[in-house]
Design goal:
Blueprint (H helix, E strand, L loop, with lengths): L2 E8 L8 E6 L25 H11 L5 E5 L9 H10 L3 E6 L4 H9 L5 E5 L7 H5 L6 H13 L4 E7 L6 H10 L5 E6 L16 H11 L5 E5 L4
Parallel strand pairs: 2-3, 3-4, 4-5, 5-6, 6-7, 7-8
Antiparallel strand pairs: 1-2
Helix pairs in contact: 6-7
Length: 231
C-alpha cells in the first residue's frame, strides 16, 4: 500500500462528519481532468506509512468521527482491508471513494461490514465512458455491476459526476439518469479549473447549465444536488 497523502481534518469529504482523508496511490483510469494526477502511477510518491497514519488517527480519535479513503483508486491497494479494519478498531467510521471498476472488492468489504459510506464516481454515460475515463476499451458492465450492488447493499451511498465542459452534454446526463434509476442520491460537482490536472485546459459549466443537468436526472433519482455551487 502506498499512502500518497493524508489530510488530518476535513469537513467536506465525508458528508455530515468531521473526518480525516487518506489518499492512496495508483489508479486504473486516466480521466483527463483528474485533480490527483500525481497519484495515478507507480511513480506516485509515498508520503507516510500505514502505521504513521494510524498513530495520528489514534491521537485524534476523540476529535474525529470518520475517515475517507480516496485516491487514486483505493480498491487497487492489496492492503485496503487491513487498513480499514485498523481504522475501525479506533472506533471511526469509514467512507470509501471508488470508481466502481472493481466491484468484487467493494462487495467483499461490504459483506464484512467494513464500510459505512460509499461514494462512487459516474464518469459519464455508458456510450462515452471510455473517453471520459481515459480508458478506450473500458468494460462498462463492471460499472453497471457496481451501480446495481451499491444501490441495493444497504450501506449509505452517493453517486457523483464531475461535470466538465467539452466532455459532458445533456444527452449524457439523460443516459446517466436512466443508468442510475432508483438510486437514492446523486451529486453533480462542477469541474474547477487547474493546471495540475492530467490534461489542463478544461473548464466547468455555468450554474444555469448545471441546474439544467440536475433537472434532467431528477426524474430518475430520489435526490439530485449540485456540489460546490451556490443555489
Amino acid at each position: 500500500m502506498k499512502i500518497c497523502g493524508f489530510q488530518k481534518t476535513t469537513l467536506l469529504d465525508y458528508p455530515g462528519h468531521v473526518a480525516a482523508t487518506i489518499f492512496l496511490g495508483l489508479c486504473n483510469f486516466r480521466c483527463p481532468f483528474c485533480h490527483n494526477a500525481e497519484l495515478l502511477t507507480e511513480d506516485a510518491e509515498e508520503q507516510c506509512t500505514m502505521d504513521e497514519v494510524l498513530d495520528v488517527l489514534k491521537r485524534r480519535a476523540s476529535l474525529l468521527e470518520g475517515v475517507c479513503i480516496t485516491g487514486g483508486e483505493p480498491t487497487l491497494s492489496p492492503d485496503l482491508e487491513i487498513l480499514i479494519r485498523r481504522i475501525r478498531e479506533l472506533g471511526l467510521l469509514v467512507k470509501l471513494d471508488t470508481n466502481g471498476y472493481r466491484p468484487d472488492v467493494v462487495k467483499r468489504l461490504c459483506s464484512e461490514g467494513l464500510l459505512d459510506y460509499i461514494a462512487m464516481d459516474i464518469k459519464s454515460s455508458p456510450e462515452n465512458y471510455g473517453m471520459v475515463a481515459g480508458v478506450p476499451n473500458i468494460n462498462t458492465d463492471t460499472i453497471s455491476e457496481s451501480i446495481s450492488f451499491v444501490r441495493s447493499c444497504g450501506v449509505p451511498y452517493e453517486f457523483r459526476t464531475t461535470a466538465v465542459k467539452g466532455l459532458h452534454t445533456e444527452e449524457d446526463f439523460e443516459a446517466i439518469g436512466r443508468w442510475l434509476q432508483g438510486a437514492e442520491r446523486y451529486f453533480i460537482q462542477n469541474y474547477v479549473e487547474s493546471d495540475r490536472v492530467l490534461f489542463p485546459g478544461f473548464s466547468g459549466f455555468r450554474r444555469e447549465e448545471l441546474l439544467a443537468f440536475a433537472d434532467i436526472v431528477r426524474p430518475y433519482v430520489g435526490e439530485v444536488c449540485l456540489r460546490g455551487v451556490d443555489y
